[in-house]
Write a structure and sequence with these properties.
alpha+beta; 3 helices; 5 strands; 25% helix
């Protein structure tokens, strides 16, 4: 069921503290941790503690939680000093877009030039 922890979800396990991660921020509703395969000097994932398959499902079912994720993405960027030079927040939705863990999450990328359009 949407919003409920999923036993087979890596990010649910990270949010529950069952799988280790390098946590950089936590709130009552979100967890932010370093990506294990960083694509930029700053590459942090921000996830809701509640399980939603992707950003669209999250925004539809729990818009206030989607706002929490975006707010925390901005806080991560500030903490990492990426806000001074610019940063990107990315939600990959679906395997064709590169989503590999089907738990909504925002990538916060910064610390280097980010070309447009993205590749």
């Amino acid at each position: 069921m949407a919003g409920e922890p999923q036993a087979d979800c890596l990010f649910c396990k990270i949010a529950a503290g069952e799988v280790p991660a390098t946590i950089v921020r936590e709130t009552a509703t979100t967890v932010a941790f370093r990506d294990i395969n960083p694509q930029a000097p700053t590459h942090v994932l921000v996830i809701p503690r509640a399980h939603y398959r992707d950003a669209a499902a999250l925004a539809t079912a729990a818009p206030e939680l989607a706002a929490d994720v975006l707010r925390e993405a901005g806080e991560v960027a500030a903490d990492e000093k990426a806000d001074a030079t610019g940063y990107r927040v990315v939600f990959n939705t679906g395997s064709g877009a590169g989503q590999t863990v089907f738990h909504a999450h925002a990538h916060v990328l910064g610390g280097r030039g980010l070309e447009w359009p993205p590749g």
